[in-house]
Amino acid sequence: MNTKTMEGLVGAKTSMEMANTPFRVLKEARRRGDTATMERAMGYMNDLSEKAESYQVKADEGMKEDAKEAREKAELERNKAIEKRREEREISEEKLEESRAKNEESKMDSVEISEDGKALQKEAAADGTADAEAQSKEPSAKEPITYVKVDVNTVETAPMKEIKGASVDCSV
Q1: How far is CA 4 from CA 13, 18, 72, 87, 170, in A?
Q2: What is the pLDDT of residue 125?
Q3: Spatial CB neighbours of 106, under 8 Å, sequence gap ≥ 6
Q4: Mean pLDDT, the chain, whole residue set
Q5: How many angstroms separate the CA atoms of 3 and 63, rounded?
Q6: Closest CA to 148 of 132, 160, 163
Q7: What is the CB neighbour count within 10 angstroms for residue 12?
Q8: Adjacent-strand bridge partners of 12
Q9: CA triplet 151, 139, 135: central angle to 5 degrees?
Q10: Element (H, E) at 147
Q11: What is the per-residue pLDDT across 30-83, written as a single tens digit (0 to 9) for each?
Q12: Are 63 and 5 a contacting pair, CB within 8 Å?
């Protein structure tokens, strides 16, 4: 709350409370028929009501200043929020461009066999249920490979290039 607003409200309230005393004196003087006392009391009441009005004007000015400050603060916060969103958008666009560049560099997908899958493969080889031809074509579990599509019906393997930060998400 602005100082002018507080001063105006407190001053107006005090002036109105102080006007109660001359008003009481005015009533008493009227009952007695004392016109001189009535005129003095009316003079005091007029002075105090004028003070209350001037304090009310001061309070109104203070409230206008408060409203102006609130609008300026809201505008500043709005501009900060717009700038923050702009920066976030630029950062996300940069990340998107980086990921697009990485994806264009590597048009290969990698497949990694889990430990459970490796264990199942070893069991199948030990049981003799695994296809001997398929086992001979599979590289060792230690060296990663990349599957490259040659045409619609054939897929070949090639040594895998290591790409840092690349990942593939698959769902079935």
Answers
A1: 14, 21, 18, 40, 67
A2: 79
A3: 161, 163, 166
A4: 80
A5: 10
A6: 160
A7: 20
A8: none
A9: 90
A10: strand 145-149
A11: 999 999 999 999 999 999 999 999 999 999 998 999 999 999 999 999 999 999
A12: yes
Q: What token pair was written down for 9?
A: 């409200």
> Taking each helix axis from N to C terminus, what angle separates 35-105 and 3-18, rounded to the nearest 10 degrees?
160
Confidence of residue 145 (pLDDT cuts 50, 70, 90): low
User: Distance between the two ends of the chain, CA-based, in angstroms?
Assistant: 62
What's the pTM?
0.43
Residue 152, both tokens: 């619609």
Rg (CA), the chain: 44
Q: Are 160 and 110 in contact, with CB atoms under 8 Å apart? A: yes
Q: Indicate whether 98 pLDDT > 60.
A: yes
User: Measured in whole angstroms, how far is the alpha carbon of residue 131 from the centre of its chain?
Assistant: 58
